[in-house]
Design a protein that fits this description.
The chain is α/β, with parallel strands linked by helices. It has 8 helices and 7 strands. The longest helix is centred in the middle third of the chain and has 22 residues, at 106-127.
């Protein structure tokens, strides 16, 4: 007796929804936009570099774009002021800062703390009335700063602050959900820029030491981001994605 199997049709999980990616022209932001599009979402991308942003938008078929610096509160307010109601906002803009105490430029450090923490507060304030109830606001953080080391003071402080900020915002702007993705090393253009000619050495080191036996890529983070968007029970949480990096030697 023969049996006939029917093909399995997987419904697109973000069909009919709109996803905003702040910092969506490259790396994790771009891959999240690509993944969201594959799941049926419309995407709106922002970035500082207008040319790179337009290229990314063309590749993913973005609904619209806006070129501005995401650390500028006036620009953020203007962007959200013109934004229609959306379903999800992900913030990937920004970069880590390293440096030993003796070499720190304290005038710049004030700006660096603001770049990471004030940006999150500004986005939360403006997104609270633009994201539909049950939609989500996703921030990016890291796991590397959890282990003390010389030169890690700023990164460690921000790493410790973001989960607490996320949990509090999840209560304050509910029913919008607020979550944090904490990544380790992710193989992105930013990582290449930061490491320069040490990039391949770092990749090889991680392939050898990480429990997963490979380097984490932006597509891994994008898959997690889309899961957070689609699972409406998730809020106030920090999700680690570093391949086990925090559990092994640097």
């Amino acid at each position: 007796m023969s049996t006939v199997t029917s093909p399995i049709h997987c419904e697109q999980e973000l069909l009919g929804q709109t996803v905003v990616v702040i910092g969506g022209s490259a790396g994790i932001g771009f891959e999240t936009a690509r993944r969201a599009r594959a799941e049926g979402a419309k995407v709106i991308l922002t970035g500082r570099n207008a040319e790179r942003l337009e290229q990314a938008a063309s590749e993913v078929g973005a609904l619209s774009t806006a070129a501005f610096d995401a650390v500028d509160p006036v620009a953020l307010e203007g962007f959200f002021g013109d934004l229609p109601t959306v379903d999800h906002v992900m913030v990937t803009a920004g970069r880590p800062s390293y440096g030993r105490l003796a070499d720190m430029d304290f005038a710049k450090i004030r700006g660096l703390f603001g770049e990471h923490l004030l940006q999150a507060l500004y986005v939360a304030r403006y997104a609270a009335n633009k994201v539909r109830p049950g939609g989500t606001l996703i921030f990016m953080g890291g796991t590397g700063g959890r282990r003390p080391a010389p030169g890690m003071s700023i990164v460690s402080a921000v790493t410790a602050a973001l989960p607490a900020l996320t949990a509090n915002l999840a209560l304050e702007i509910a029913p919008v959900r607020v979550n944090l993705i904490a990544a380790g090393f992710v193989d992105t253009p930013l990582s290449a820029e930061l490491l320069g000619d040490q990039l391949e050495k770092r990749r090889n080191q991680l392939r050898t030491t990480l429990p997963i036996g490979r380097v984490v890529g932006p597509e891994d983070v994008a898959a997690l981001a889309v899961h957070i968007m689609t699972n409406s029970a998730l809020t106030g949480a920090t999700f680690d994605i570093d391949g086990g990096q925090q559990f092994v030697s640097r």
